[in-house]
Write a structure and sequence with these properties.
single chain, 164 residues, alpha+beta, 3 helices, globular
Length: 164
């Protein structure tokens, strides 16, 4: 009888842990939220050019970097996990309130509390703090992330990227 009670207790504990893990995994943002200004990781160069046209400047020393107006940078890479030789978006970053936002409307210049209210069903993970700047992460599937940097309670940059 004692063994049955112990086994039942272990089983209940296992189920409790499993349900907590499932709840944490389901708290990631929906995949369609991982874009800025309509640009999302894994888009091709041509798809970006179709939306925004030619960049202000191009840096092709190493990986390819498009700069739009000094406030939007799009990093392209040749994804080593795919059998393609084509450049695709690894990350898109905005550092100004320039129209680039997530589909839900998260943009540079909003307050931290506005960000939390916007994604209230999805917990945010605090990253490292460097000086006045605090990074916050939202996670998606397949290594896709949103990094929001806040200083003095204001969002100063948003980066949407696929983790390498």
């Amino acid at each position: 009888m004692r063994i049955i009670k112990k086994l039942l207790m272990v089983f209940c504990l296992f189920m409790l842990c499993a349900s907590g893990t499932e709840a944490a995994m389901s708290s990631t943002l929906p995949q369609n939220e991982f874009s800025l200004g309509g640009i999302r990781p894994e888009m091709t160069v041509n798809e970006v050019l179709d939306i925004y046209g030619s960049p202000t400047s191009i840096d092709n020393k190493g990986d390819l970097v498009y700069d739009y107006g000094g406030t939007v940078k799009i990093f392209f890479w040749k994804n080593c996990y795919k059998d393609s030789n084509e450049y695709e978006v690894q990350s898109v970053t905005t550092t100004a309130n320039n129209g680039f936002a997530t589909p839900a409307g998260l943009r540079v210049g909003m307050s931290y509390s506005e960000m939390v209210a916007l994604y209230k069903k999805h917990p945010v993970a605090a990253g490292p703090k460097i000086g006045k700047e605090q990074g916050y992460y939202y996670y998606g599937k397949d290594g896709i992330r949103l990094l929001v940097t806040v200083a003095d309670d204001k969002i100063i940059s948003i980066k949407c990227y696929v983790s390498v």
